[in-house]
Design brief:
Layout lengths: L7 E4 L4 H12 L7 E5 L7 E4 L2 E4 L1 E2 L10 E4 L3 H13 L3 E4 L15 H4 L9 E3 L5 H11 L5 E10 L6 H15 L31 H14 L6 E7 L6 E9 L5 H10 L3 E3 L11 H4 L5 E8 L6 E8 L3 H17 L7 H7 L1
Parallel strand pairs: 1-2, 1-6, 2-5, 6-7, 7-8, 9-10, 12-13
Antiparallel strand pairs: 3-4, 9-11, 11-14, 13-14
Helix pairs in contact: 1-9, 4-6
């Protein structure tokens, strides 16, 4: 089966990720008549340009999924929890971008380059990991082919579109206000984001970590199939429009040289090596924006650990971090001929 034969719904089509999903479908020449643009009631009737025609937004209701083969949901967890089961009951495969189902035992959490085979045991819902987890596990998966990983320490530098389109507008509005010496309006974050850095992404837990940092730990363990992986992260919001970056320190069971790491990352699917720091060539958000790959560079020995390496990566959070990963999951499902869950799989996962 070809993906162009499928009717695809985009839930959250007017949002930042939804817009990118439509762009990606347009790049694939997916027929406009095979796309259903869905959003909340306030966006009903809005026109979205698509390959020379307009898609008319309809309200995302249970009945709207009738005849839909695949639904990409990029909305709040509440919306996902309400609509995903309804869509599945109507025969729709749901690929969900939110956190609602990621840690459910019967829901695959998939980055196709890392654990594509996990799509085979879906029961109607497949989750996409957090947009910081995806590039991290892609790098870790390549590196663990050299030596087992014993511990990971990560600091993230996350763009405002990880929050959504409204946060992007707020960054630009605040920046203009600061430059014009005007009062700054704060809505999306606890503090001003323009010309600032916030060491908080999501709410804090009782252990001092945030929910975002907790996601990175648990999602990485699930995707890599390493439930005991030791991983600590500090997630930071920065005044960048698009693309997340990460500073990563990896400890291995055995010593791994930077050259070995470069070779492994150079050969990794979906990863591009950008590692000429002497010439000021390294991954940056501006270079990652609009690209499909995870860019990795600044690979060097971690002088604080005998068997450690440090590296830096950047990745477009709206593309590979969300919409592109969803489409690649669909590609994997079709390649493995498991668009519909098999009865055998459903019984096994029950």
């Amino acid at each position: 089966m070809n993906s162009s034969d499928l009717t695809i719904a985009i839930v959250g089509a007017t949002g930042a990720v939804g817009r990118i999903a439509l762009d990606l479908l347009a790049e694939r020449n997916h027929p406009a008549e095979k796309i259903v643009a869905m959003a909340s009631a306030r966006s009903v009737g809005k026109k979205l340009p698509y390959r020379g025609v307009d898609l008319t937004v309809v309200e995302a209701t249970p009945d709207a999924f009738a005849g839909v083969d695949v639904a990409f949901i990029s909305a709040s967890s509440e919306v996902s929890k309400r609509l995903a089961p309804e869509a599945v009951s109507r025969g729709t495969l749901v690929i969900d971008d939110g956190s609602a189902f990621r840690m459910e035992e019967n829901v695959p959490l998939v980055v196709p380059e890392v654990n594509g085979a996990d799509v085979e045991w879906h029961e109607g819902i497949i989750s996409i990991p957090n947009c910081t987890t995806t590039p991290l596990v892609m790098a870790l998966d390549a590196l663990r082919s050299i030596s087992p990983i014993t511990a990971v320490t990560v600091s993230t530098y996350q763009s405002v579109t990880g929050t959504g389109a409204a946060a992007e507008v707020e960054l630009l509005t605040q920046s203009r206000a600061v430059l014009d010496s005007e009062d700054v309006a704060i809505e999306q974050y606890p503090h001003q984001i323009a010309f600032n850095v916030l060491p908080q992404v999501d709410d804090f837990l009782t252990n001092g970590y945030t929910k975002e940092e907790d996601k990175m730990l648990n999602e990485s363990r699930k995707i890599l199939h390493e439930p005991a992986l030791r991983l600590a992260s500090t997630c930071v919001r920065v005044p960048v429009r698009v693309s997340h970056s990460e500073s990563v320190s990896v400890e291995f069971q055995d010593a791994v040289s930077p050259e070995e790491a470069r070779d492994a990352l150079r050969d990794a699917e979906g990863v591009t090596l950008v590692d000429e720091p002497q010439n000021s060539v390294y991954p940056m958000p501006t270079e990652a924006e609009g690209a499909d790959e995870v860019f990795v560079g600044r690979i060097r020995e971690d002088i604080a650990h005998d068997t450690g390496l440090s590296l830096w990566l950047s990745c477009d959070n709206l593309r590979k971090g969300a919409a592109l990963n969803a489409l690649q999951i669909l590609d994997e499902v079709l390649r493995r001929e498991c668009l519909k869950p098999s009865p055998k799989t459903a019984v096994t996962q029950a």
